[in-house]
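Sequence in, structure out. Go.
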Amino acid sequence: MKKSIITACLLALLGVSCKKDDNNNPIPSNGGAGKYLLQTSIKSADGTTGTCYLQTFANLSGNINNSKGAQIPFGAIIVVEGNDIFVVDDYTGEKGVTKWQYNPKNHSIVAGAMLSIPANSQASALVKVSDTKAYLPLFALGQIIVLNPQTMKKIGSIDLSAYAHTDNNPEPSTGVVKDGYFYLALAQEKKNYEPYEDYVQADVAIINIQTDKVEKVVSEKTSGICYPTRPSERGMMFSTENKDIYIACPGFYGFNPAHPKFGFVCIPNAKTVSETAFDSNKSWDLSQVTIQGTQYKPASILNTKYIGSGKVVAYVSIAELYGDNPFTAKMAMAVLIDLNAKTIKKIEGVPLTDPQSLFIGSYENDVILSAFGSDKVGLFRYNPTNGNVQQVLTTEGNPTFFHAF
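Output:
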């Protein structure tokens, strides 16, 4: 029983959706005919299933419902590149990856070509590496689909089975492109969504984007921090101003008392791949850091966005708030993390949210956070300079993605 509860909790924290919606024919939608893109979901009472919507809208203010939204798979990962919108069915895979097109003239979004992917492959966030190439890691299969994002045709694949611990799947998560290489996090998990207790480290595969070959796998084995990134959250691996790569690692999500550590690991910038390695001196375990403005210490890190000068806006989980159902519990707190000062501070004004509304993005010079709070639901605009927070949109259901074209 305990193991099943932990598995359910980890599923919720991973953001893994269990069922798809039943709409087989997504329709064009212009919502409120505006430059803003919004994804929302209406979840079931237990939070494990639901219906998801995608729409554009005109004003970043007031209330918005889902009446003009097009249905997309529940829990879908959204990636925007220019006017292209990629909708990834990340769990069932039955709806593959659909490329939607945003029309800046009339602000409509229309579904176009679809790339089929294997069922139950748990596709991660798509990463575009050039105008004619993108990588789609398949978390459950240990592979990467190489595709042309213009034609939505598969043009190759990368087998990562050789880099797995124990089995043949290293669980490729998501990554970043830097200087001609794709740095891909390998989660290395057990079958019940937990890290291996005998393999508490962070692995990253370095792939040449010209040859699609893995040239090196680097590992951080010293700090006890593991499980690099979450497959749905591209922001959890980022490059700083001096090209150091930081990786947010959830660890055991606070469910394993023997392994409480989680936080950041770092690959400093190097001249060549052969010189590239983790620097354990830059690893930072967040599990023992009290969040300023609260009595809590975080249990895990769920999403991040680097905003420059060593500052990271993040959602962290609070173990004391997990409750009986982690799919619906208001257990995630918005915080500002300072990588240099080694501090974590609560962002006042953003409500505690459930693990289905954890979006963090940018808008003008500010940060947009989604939240599904007890009394406030919607999008919140945060100014990191003065700390001001204001709710800018109230949504129907969980807000899960936002973008301004």
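Check: Residues 1-7, 16-31 have pLDDT under 50 and may be disordered. The longest strand covers residues 300-308.
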